Amino acid sequence: MATAYIVDAVRTAGGKRGGKLAGVHPVDLGAAVFDAIAARNDFDTSKIDDVITGCVSQGGQQTMDLGRNAVLASNLPDSIPAVTIDRQCGSSQQAMMFAAQAVMSGTQDIVLASGIESMTRVPMGSVATLFIKEGLGHYKSERLEEKYPGIMFSQFMGAEMIVQKHGFTKDDLDAFALESHRRAKAATEAGKFEREIVPIEIETPEGRELHKVDEGIRFDATLEGIAGVKLLQEGGAITAATSSQICDGASAVLIVSEQALKDHGLTPRARIHHVSVTAGDPVIMLEEPLFATEKALKRAGMTIADIDAYEVNEAFAPVPLAWMKYLGADHARLNQHGGAIALGHPLGASGTKLMATLLGVLDATGGRYGLQTMCEGGGQANVTIVERL
């Protein structure tokens, strides 16, 4: 089987809901990261075989094949095809894995995997809610309702179930959230994100400026402040402060074959070592990364001790906490530059976003192997393992 290589990975700095990226159309967010990939890497972009774009909320400004529209808005040739996919929060990680599989199969040589999500312009759940309000139907069919009567497949409820099942306290969640902000703050101030972030020109009341710092980081975060945020559910443990931040953003990863490296004089940053996806309980749903990672490591002939850095999406604090507990993982190797609690979770853009950050962590620490995984709607989880070169 052929090897798939990662040449580059970029992302926008996260924008808060209604924040600095709110004035940028999602198509243009995607075009910006596509242009950055093209500008940073000297190769004939007409040779890109496909663009695969992840997006969760495919409504309004994010419809009509969002990825293709971003290609058309970018400086890439119009001859490049594109497709938009949805595997919920893992959409662009799946895009990356589809790209890697295309290269590994030998059917394509250069594929751009990406993710785009403006949670300001197309709010989470807005498409399903619109159809329900208009009397156009619910996502649960009669047969699905028969199998799961009265269950709404809530990620929030799944997170609360993980808290109870794994014996965490609100204090555990608060402490984890604080550490996410501290790590994101330290990484920002040390310039750790400079290689991965694509500055986006925006209009502000003071004039034009470049957005290049993740807007959600609380640089003055304290445990007292986090602990004081009200519970999202009476009797529960999760608050907005221990949940991922709503975020606008885009990201992209360039994946190529060995032949493409030679033909275009490209230098790889990493190789794809393993890709897999699994599914489990759709009710507790967010627990699947635990079992997906266990299976992935076994298939790759590795243990958690072999992995130098891991990115586990901080959808809610109990998810990475349970992941660490189950696998015996080292918190020092987890989300070393902070996670979605501080940096934001732009849904379909988070998969390739995490890869950009993971590669930056491996470069900064000199680590060899990196692993990323995330919980996804429907009780699914993707796992990608890379080897830094």
Short synopsis of the structure:
GO terms for molecular function: acetyl-CoA C-acetyltransferase activity. By secondary structure, the protein is α/β, with parallel strands linked by helices.
Structure, described:
- By secondary structure, this protein is an alpha/beta fold.
- The strands form 2 sheets. Strands 1, 2, 3, 4, 5, 6, 9, 10, 11, 12 and 13 form an 11-stranded mixed β-sheet that branches. It has a two-stranded antiparallel sheet with strand order 7-8.
- The longest helix has 20 residues, at 170-189.
- It has a domain at 273-388: Peroxisomal Thiolase, Chain A, domain 1.
- The two termini are 19 Å apart.
- It is globular and about 60 Å long.
- Helix 3 (91-105) crosses helix 13, helix 6 crosses helix 11 and helix 10 (288-300) packs parallel to helix 11 (318-327).
- Helix content is 36%, strand content 21%.
- Belongs to the thiolase-like superfamily. Thiolase family.
CATH superfamily of the domain at 273-388, called what? Answer: Thiolase/Chalcone synthase
Globally, the shape reads globular
What is the CATH domain class of the domain at 273-388? Alpha Beta
How much helical structure, as a percent, in the residues? 25-40%
Total helical segments: 13
Count of extended strands: 13
Give average pLDDT, whole number.
96
The CATH topology label of the domain at 273-388 is Peroxisomal Thiolase, Chain A, domain 1
Reading the helices and strands in chain order gives EEHEHEHEHHHHEEEHEHEHEHHHEE
Largest sheet: 11 strands, mixed
Domain Thiolase N-terminal: 5-259
Active site: 89 (acyl-thioester intermediate), 345 (proton acceptor), 375 (proton acceptor)
Keywords: Acyltransferase, Transferase
EC number: 2.3.1.9
